[in-house]
Amino acid sequence: MRENADRLRYEVVADVIEKQIGGGLLRAHERVPSVRALSRTLGVSVGTVVQAYVHLERRGVLHTRPRSGHFVSARVDPAVPAPTRAIKIQTRPARVAPKVIDTVLESLRRSDLIALNSAVALAAARIDGRLNSIARSVLREDPGNPNDLVKPPGDATLRRAVAKRLAATGCAAREEDVVITNGTMEAITLALGMLCKSGDTVLVESPTYFGILQVIEHLRLNVVEVPNHPGHGIDVAAVESAVGSGRIDAAVLQSSFNNPTGAVTPDESKRRIVEILSGAEIPLVEDDIYGDLHFGPHRPKPFAAFDETGSVIYCASISKTVALGYRIGWAVSPRHAHAMMKAKFFASVASPTLQQRILSRYYAAGIHDRHLRYVRENLAANCRRLVAAIAREFPAGTRVSSPSGGVVLWVELPRGADGVSLFERALERGIGIAPGIIFSATAGYRNCIRLSAGLPFGPEVEKALTTLGRLARADHG
């Protein structure tokens, strides 16, 4: 295993199992070697094999059966390989300048497209009726609600519910650490505005959500990018190198199910990244909007769970899981809560009162976890069918991510293909996709696109993928 010394040992073990599956040595529903047997065969610790199996289980490659061991999942499809490694480390600060962002934003506003460009889980709408019922109850009991303003940090009952759920992930969160915001993006924007001044430099992963890059551009900040690999998340060595190479004033990182790659950074890597940043006194703004959308049995831990110095500002919302239009999110930080509360008041005074009170009752009703299971199962099924359609319709050499959660798929087209050209030609045919170049400060990933798994997979989506595949094959020549 020396040739893989630059990779974590458990990833190498996971690769061994995946290659055996891909080569037909292990088939669907077949039991894989026991932890101890594989430990002896490969000469690694039992703990390393356990970590590899947990990693594969989160990705849906394996599943466990009580008292029986680990088995190959039926949904594994080795026909489409994973995308290649992300960009090399880029330590020179750069200005964010995506060339097609205006066209992309315009396409997101269009209602006539098959919205494979929007990272929204439509299955979340299943709860709309219950939310509307709660809204009617709140208004009946308090008719003056429209003119009742809940000032920052926000509704106490809602903040307590957020802290309780976050504590279940391993974070030492309290009600007084929570500030309610207008969605995750306001939380991130307020945090960066509080931490940085014009000309400062922010560390981000690459690729990353284009909205984060646009906020950084809006605040007149510079960017340093480190790779996020579709298979195993943020490159720890690259973070360490970037921190040691020059002044970095803050970091904005996605902890789980990166948008656009869907990658999850392993727990030990998260722990080490927090140690590196806190050791250099660099605050970390964490975007964990997709954390609850895991396909496996266990929710990934956030960066905040490994924070011992108060350097992490945890940001999330209910936009992807409960109600996109409510625009309710939160920032959580024992150290920065008071400053965030002031920033929130100066930026937008308060978040909507009615929505906060509806969500407080929604959480108290005890139906959230059941609802999440439905949304996760729906997204996992959509992902499986999208990957199968891509394998069938797209040109040879196409690669696609196999996320273990979240809402999106990252598609790497064959070398020489142009994701921007495909984006433009797809728009002409009523199909929305997101070109890869908007997910990098330096307009990289020209031959990549992001597709949403949030739409129900039906004839309309299947036809759109057939059209996209035809266009991609024509582009590839």
Summed up, what is this model?
This protein has about 475 residues and is of the alpha/beta class.
Description:
With 477 residues, the protein is of the alpha/beta class. It has helices at residues 9-22, 35-42, 46-58, 101-109, 128-141, 156-167, 183-195, 210-218, 236-245, 267-279, 337-348, 353-364, 368-393, 419-428, 459-476, and strands spanning 62-65, 69-72, 90-94, 114-115, 178-181, 201-206, 222-229, 233-234, 250-254, 284-287, 312-317, 329-332, 399-400, 408-412, 431-432, 434-435, 448-452. Strands 3, 5, 6, 7, 8, 9, 10, 11 and 12 form a nine-stranded mixed sheet that branches. Helix 7 (183-195) packs across helix 11 (337-348) and helix 14 (419-428) crosses helix 15. It is globular, with a radius of gyration of 22 Å. The model is unreliable at 1-7 (pLDDT under 50).
Set down the secondary structure blueprint:
Layout (H helix, E strand, L loop, with lengths): L8 H14 L12 H8 L3 H13 L3 E4 L3 E4 L17 E5 L6 H9 L4 E2 L12 H14 L14 H12 L10 E4 L1 H13 L5 E6 L3 H9 L3 E8 L3 E2 L1 H10 L4 E5 L12 H13 L4 E4 L24 E6 L11 E4 L4 H12 L4 H12 L3 H26 L5 E2 L7 E5 L6 H10 L2 E2 L1 E2 L12 E5 L6 H18 L1
Parallel strand pairs: 4-15, 6-7, 6-9, 9-10, 10-11
Antiparallel strand pairs: 1-2, 3-7, 5-12, 7-8, 11-12, 13-14, 14-17, 16-17
